[in-house]
Specification:
45% of the residues lie in helices and 24% in strands. It has 307 residues and is α/β, with parallel strands linked by helices. The strands form 2 sheets. Strands 3, 4, 5, 6, 7, 8, 9, 10, 11 and 12 form a 10-stranded mixed β-sheet that branches. The chain has a two-stranded antiparallel sheet with strand order 1-2. It is rod-shaped.
């Protein structure tokens, strides 16, 4: 294949002269001096080894070779400009900001892999994560500060569309040397008399547990309370008592010191899902992140079935 030694600015110079039939008018259109324009045309003719233009003191016209070359040169420049425009549009589509609100257990356990997949597809994209409690996540979505959220509340809100992804059970979590650690299952009545570790009464998890346990004839008593799950897990790691938490929060980092035991009678669970404002249509990047999260949740469900 013969080497093509042409420059885009030479083709643009030739097209401008052909359109204007005047070096002066073409130079003005390209914001060039006439000598600079003439040098570009001369260089193009030298590369092609043909004369493209006939010049007189009064006019400029195409030679036969110039007329033939004009059609191809115009097509080349048009195609290149379309390609460059397409790349710019792609870059523009892949830039911007996606904001997501998520309860901490998902933000720590499943969200990072989905964010990594999004960053690979949209390298210019800025990501903002609000990892907060359930009520705060709901408020971020309703206020429009987050494109969507991951939560276990909001399904009853008329302004929220809720897409369920995972039904998650609650576990009793104890240190490996705790007397209950060898048990495979526990009933709630087995925890009566144990020192329970809980989170603040303002948290979504605590409200859900209190609601389900209200009808029990005997309820375990919470002796230690933390504002956030991280603090509650620290108490469990110190051997202070039994922590009751949703299963997803028991990450591999905690399992080095702690074990989770299924709780029954009653078995309490929560449903995690994607929440969006009713009628809201996420952009392409946000929708791609939602798809990645669905895949992450599906993989987690498959692992739970395998276990």
């Amino acid at each position: 294949m013969a080497r093509i030694n042409l420059e885009l600015n030479e083709l643009q110079a030739f097209l401008a002269v052909a359109e204007k039939s005047s070096f002066k008018a073409a130079a003005e259109a390209l914001y060039l001096s006439q000598p600079a324009l003439s040098r570009r045309i001369e260089k193009l003719e030298q590369s092609l080894q043909v004369r493209l233009l006939e010049r007189t003191t009064r006019s400029v016209r195409l030679t036969e070779e110039g007329a033939h070359f004009l059609l191809h040169a115009q097509n080349v420049v048009d195609e290149l400009e379309q390609a460059m425009s397409g790349l710019s549009e792609r870059a523009e589509r892949r830039s911007g900001v996606v904001s997501i609100a998520s309860i901490p257990s998902v933000a720590q356990h499943l969200l990072p892999a989905a964010l990594a997949g999004l960053a690979a597809s949209y390298p210019a994209l800025c990501l903002r994560v609000f990892d907060e409690g359930a009520q705060e996540v709901l408020e971020q979505v309703l206020a429009g500060r987050a494109d969507f959220g991951i939560n276990f509340i909001g399904a009853e809100d008329p302004n929220i569309d809720f897409e369920p992804l995972l039904t998650e059970r609650y576990l009793a979590v104890v240190r490996h040397d705790h007397p209950l650690a060898a048990q495979r299952r526990l009933r709630w009545e087995d925890l009566v008399g144990e020192r329970l570790i809980g989170v603040s009464q303002r948290s979504g998890n605590r409200l859900l547990l209190d609601h389900h346990l209200a009808s029990l004839p005997q309820r375990p008593r919470i002796h230690y309370e933390a504002s956030h799950l991280q603090g509650a897990y620290g108490m469990a790691e110190a051997g202070l008592g039994v922590l009751v938490v949703p299963e997803l929060s028991l990450t591999p980092a905690y399992r080095h010191q702690l074990t989770g035991i299924a709780l029954t009678d009653p078995q309490i669970s929560r449903t995690l899902g994607l929440i969006t404002r009713s009628g809201y249509q996420p952009g392409a990047a946000a929708e791609h992140l939602r798809s990645l999260l669905r895949a992450q949740f599906a993989q987690y469900r498959d692992r739970q079935v395998g276990d």
